[in-house]
Amino acid sequence: MKAAGHFFRELSSREEEGEISINDHTASISSAGDTVCRDAKILSVQGKKNIYLDNGFLFVLSQPISLENEVAYQNTYQKSISWLEIFTLKKAIILSVILLVGLFVLRFLLSASVGTLVAMFPYKWEEQIGKNAYTSFSTFAFDESNLPNERIVKIRTQANTIIAANGLRRTEIFFHESDLFGANALAFPGGPIVVTDDLVKLLESDELTLAVIAHELAHIEKRHSLNQIIEVVGVAAIASVLLGSTDSLIEEASLVAVNLFASANSRNFEKEADLVALNYLEKANLEPETFANAIEKLTQYTCEIKTGDSIDDCINDIESGWFSTHPNGAARIQYLTSD
């Protein structure tokens, strides 16, 4: 193929008239009967007129080439783009399958690397995240505790005994009145732990409260919150990159997928924290059975405030309050009391 036009030499803005001869994927340029360059590789053809060569030359055709010729001179990447621009149902199905497989592979790689990422994450940064979160929650969710100060000091002292006996990192324990959380205990990443007044009053026995605190200490020691943060952020980032769109349906689907994953993973962490808490109590010369008693009492309380279910059915199906991301009450009591 031969065609007329003008060209620009490498790093030059001066336009020169000439002719280009194309043979397969190479081109030669001549001007006024003289050869300017020979057998330069065609890098790309853009806009059906601009031909870029590997020697830095740009040749601009006077007349655009045909679509067939443009595709013939494109590199592999450009051919792929052109292929994608032409819609067919078969192509859409193939690309959807590739996308789904890619999501599963990325999800697997993320899960495989989370443990390493958590281990590399500095404890001081994790503790700072926890402190910031606690400070934020304190502005709207936590009020000053109404428990007697003597009782707070006693529980803290006993909790510190559990910490010392198990060689755990020092963790602050705060007591608060909270209409938002009700009877609950929360462990922030790296600490602190918050215990609500309603939980202490419901459990009545300080030993039962300490058992719940041991559970929260296990979350902190095993870095469960940080693990979830990294995994959920990673999944959300993958969804944003691969499914990024202003379309509300896709955004909602991505959010649901992230939340479902986080909930399923939470149950695994809760069971681990349950079992680790039993070891903590035993090493501190406290009765491990107190934790099962605490779970039973919390389950009973939550079931009593539900309507429409029998106590037995409720215990087997409870998924509210403190148990929203925990294994059901019956399952927990079974593995906590089994030898």
Folded structure, characterized:
The protein is an alpha+beta fold. It folds into two domains: 2-85; 121-337, no CATH class. It has twelve helices and ten strands. Helix 5 (149-165) packs across helix 7, helix 7 crosses helix 9 and helix 7 packs across helix 10 (289-304). Mean pLDDT is 82; it is low at 249-254 and 319-325.
Properties at a glance:
single chain; 12 helices; 2 domains; 339 residues; six-stranded antiparallel barrel; alpha+beta; 10 strands
State the major sheet: 6 strands, antiparallel, barrel
Biggest sheet, strands in spatial order? 1-2-3-4-5-6
Helix content: 55-70%
Order of helices and strands: EEEEEEHHHHEHEEEHHHHHHH
Shape: elongated
Number of domains: 2
- Rg over alpha carbons: 33 Å
Work out the strand percent: 15-25%
- The total beta strand count reads 10
Content-based structural category: alpha+beta
User: How many helices in DSSP terms?
Assistant: 12
Distance between the termini: 85 Å
Taking all residues together, what is the mean pLDDT? 82
The unreliable regions are 249-254, 319-325
Q: Which helices and strands appear, and what pairs or packs with what?
A:
Blueprint: E1 2-8, E2 16-23, E3 26-31, E4 34-46, E5 50-53, E6 58-61, H1 67-73, H2 76-85, H3 89-120, H4 123-138, E7 143-144, H5 149-165, E8 173-177, E9 185-187, E10 193-196, H6 197-203, H7 206-221, H8 224-243, H9 248-283, H10 289-304, H11 311-317, H12 329-337
Parallel strand pairs: 8-10
Antiparallel strand pairs: 1-2, 1-6, 2-3, 3-4, 4-5, 5-6, 7-8, 9-10
